[in-house]
Design brief:
Length: 87
Amino acid sequence: MKINPYTSVQPSTYRTTNSTHQEESRSSKQSKDKLEISTEAFDMQGIKDVEKARAARVEEIKRQVEAGEYKVNAQKTAEHFYDYWKK
C-alpha cells in the first residue's frame, strides 16, 4: 500500500479565513479610532512659549552683561539664598 504525502489543504483554508477575519476587524477598528488631547497635553504645548520667552530673557541679560549695564539686586539675591537654605 502506498501512502501519499500530506496535502496542505487545511492550512491554506485557515490562512484565507484568518485574513478575511483580520480585514473585517481592521475596518471595524478604523471606524472606532478617535483622538482626544488631554489638558496636560495642552499645558505641555504652552511650555514651548515659556521656553521662547525664557530664551529671550537670557539673551537680554547676556547683552546687558556684555554692555556693563546689568545690575545685581543684592537684597533680592540674599533673600533667595536665605529662603533656599532655610528649607
